[in-house]
Design a protein that fits this description.
Structural class: alpha+beta
Number of strands: 18
Order of helices and strands: EEHHEHHHEEHEEEEEEEEEEHEEE
Radius of gyration: 19 Å
Largest sheet: 8 strands, antiparallel
Number of helices: 7
Distance between the termini: 28 Å
């Protein structure tokens, strides 16, 4: 079954003996995703996140427990990646025209001004009181780079709580979780697209009880004077990332996989090696421009400590 939410199409494929029961569970999944969309959307003025963005510079905001946990995780991922992943890039996205889908090239002076309102360090929280505030006006939290992975995790939690043992949950081409395996199969077959051709495979994974996310320059971009600008920002410079086509992360949860693809995309191979030396059980794949037009090079890395649970599978077939 498929369902539109969060600006993409969520799909659930699941196995069981009772089709009517599976349909009910799927409806429960989609209702939860709609609830999360209504809570976390930057496009809805009445969402909890929009209210936080409007008022957190003026006063401390009490945040719903699960949303607070997601923001707290995001800020920790920002800190551990030295800001390569940053949920405060919303103002940058707007100035580059990606918020409404119409690209524009801002001036260096504009970017310099916007960067004063970008940076996870501007978000302060109190875990005991579950409050959050911004230390400068104009800061905005944008969960677009992690919310879909979080929604996939919540969907899998609902499936597991209802006794479903074999399912594939996807949020468009962004994040996928492979729960169990289809009958008679060893893991779920998950294809990663070629950075230049959507119908062509760059890699094929066999996954079981793991999440996979991708970030690609092909998702949203625009061209000016023959130069391509992608939607993934380097929070340090205020400019779109260059010399990276796409990245893949395979880890135990959707929320982690989605954060990691941004960290890998922004930081590149060298910084990823350092990150993987201190973070266990992750696979990273990088697709970078090749020497000839419409070609790419591929780099595969694993965490120094890679010991996934015995009921998980992470095989790279191609």
């Amino acid at each position: 079954a498929s369902h539109e939410a969060m600006g993409t199409v969520f799909t659930v494929a699941l196995y069981g003996r009772d089709a009517a029961f599976l349909s009910e569970v799927t409806n429960e999944v989609f209702e939860e995703i709609d609830r999360l969309d209504g809570q976390m959307s930057n496009y809805r003025p009445g969402s909890e996140l929009s209210v936080i963005n409007r008022e957190a510079a003026q006063r401390e905001m009490i945040v719903e427990p699960k949303l607070f946990g997601l923001i707290q995780y995001s800020l920790r991922a920002s800190q551990e990646s030295d800001g390569a992943f940053d949920i405060t890039v919303g103002p940058l996205m707007k100035h580059w025209g990606f918020f409404r889908g119409q690209g524009r090239l801002p001036s260096p002076a504009e970017i310099s001004q916007v960067l004063k309102r970008v940076g996870y360090q501007h978000v302060h929280f109190d875990p005991e009181r579950r409050t959050l505030r911004f230390d400068v006006s104009g800061v905005e939290i944008d969960l677009g780079g992690i919310a879909k992975g979080y929604a996939v995790d919540q969907a899998v939690e609902i499936l597991r709580s209802n006794g479903v043992t074999a399912a594939l949950v996807s949020s468009g081409t962004s994040s996928i979780y492979a729960l169990g395996s289809p009958p008679g199969e060893r893991g779920w077959k998950v294809t990663v697209r070629d950075p230049f051709e959507s119908g062509k495979a760059a890699d094929v994974f066999r996954l079981q009880n793991l999440a996979l996310s991708t970030s690609g320059s092909y998702e949203k971009f625009f061209k000016i004077a023959g130069k391509t600008y992608c939607h993934i920002m380097d929070p340090h410079t205020g400019w779109p990332v260059e010399n990276m086509l796409s990245t893949v992360a395979v880890v135990p949860t959707g929320i982690e996989s989605e954060a990691l693809t941004k960290i890998f995309f922004v930081g590149g191979v060298v910084k990823a090696r350092s990150y993987l030396a201190s973070h266990a059980n992750a696979i990273a794949v990088f697709y970078q421009p090749g020497d000839k037009p419409r070609t790419f090079t591929r780099t595969v890395l694993r965490s120094t400590s890679f010991q996934i649970p015995s009921d998980s599978i992470a095989d790279l077939e191609k």
